């Protein structure tokens, strides 16, 4: 199951959608405090005891609206990695995409829409019964986006048992959210988590949103939300594209000019 929100009405372009989320470099610890979660992406909690975050100009996690050839609007998430470059999932900008719009926020919480100049999906993107392969794309904007960029870890893969934070604009509430999870399987193609109901999971609309770890004292992108099984329910598994895979790393180096690549 792809984690892309589909079938939204054109009014969504004005109404603006939102996310469900999901840990750090410590193999034992996950971040459960809502202030810490939201501050990891440059925002503050929307509610005191939750993990929904106030949309802000200071977050690199973007809402992307994708218009297909029939005029239907879907949504995905993305993460800014360079002045005019955003990483997202390749399945979000497949052959049916006719326009991609980034939603930007100012300091007062007002939103504006900026149309992407172009986008390119990994040329070897493909699908297996459970997960996508090379599910990475780069969306380019003509002008630099005002939000901060986040570094990308390409030189080393994450490991089993490490904690991540996952961020996105997906279900169930469609607001920007961050949550914690622990990686339980690592392969060349993906990082995987299994949701047991105690931490967090990705949901439709979170596709392309970042999985980050604390490396060198900073949040660094190590994966992108790609696909899942079992919906958002306990027992479900979510797969993140492993950005350290050589084919993926080479693609990001070639397409994301100006990104800080570690």
TrEMBL record:
Recorded family membership: Belongs to the peptidase S1 family.
Secretion signal span: none
Gene3D superfamilies: Trypsin-like serine proteases
The organism's place on the tree of life at top rank: Bacteria
Annotated ranges, domain Peptidase S1: 47-257
UniProt key word Cell division: no
Record's keyword terms, sorted: Disulfide bond
UniProt-recorded name of the protein: S1 family peptidase
Pfam short name (any one): Trypsin
């Amino acid at each position: 199951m792809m984690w892309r929100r589909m079938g939204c009405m054109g009014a969504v372009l004005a109404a603006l959608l939102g996310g469900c989320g999901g840990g750090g470099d410590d193999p034992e610890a996950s971040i459960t405090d809502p202030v810490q979660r939201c501050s990891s992406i440059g925002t503050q909690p929307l509610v005191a005891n939750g993990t929904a975050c106030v949309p802000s100009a200071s977050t690199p996690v973007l809402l992307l609206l994708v218009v297909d050839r029939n005029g239907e609007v879907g949504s995905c998430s993305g993460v800014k990695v360079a002045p005019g470059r955003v990483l997202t999932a390749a399945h979000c900008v497949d052959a049916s995409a006719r326009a991609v719009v980034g939603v930007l926020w100012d300091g007062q919480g007002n939103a504006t829409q900026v149309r992407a100049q172009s986008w390119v999906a990994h040329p070897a993107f493909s699908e297996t019964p459970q997960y996508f392969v090379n599910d990475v794309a780069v969306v380019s904007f003509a002008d630099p986006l005002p939000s901060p960029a986040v570094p990308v870890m390409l030189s080393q893969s994450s490991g089993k048992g490490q904690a991540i934070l996952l961020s996105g604009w997906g279900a169930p509430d469609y607001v920007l959210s961050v949550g914690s999870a622990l990686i339980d399987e690592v392969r060349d193609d993906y990082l995987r988590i299994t949701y047991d109901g105690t931490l967090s999971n990705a949901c439709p609309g979170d596709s392309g949103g970042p999985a980050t770890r604390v490396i060198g004292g900073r949040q660094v992108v190590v994966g992108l939300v790609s696909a899942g099984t079992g919906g958002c329910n306990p027992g479900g598994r979510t797969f993140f594209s492993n950005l350290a895979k050589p084919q993926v790393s080479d693609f990001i180096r070639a397409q994301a000019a100006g990104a800080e690549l570690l």
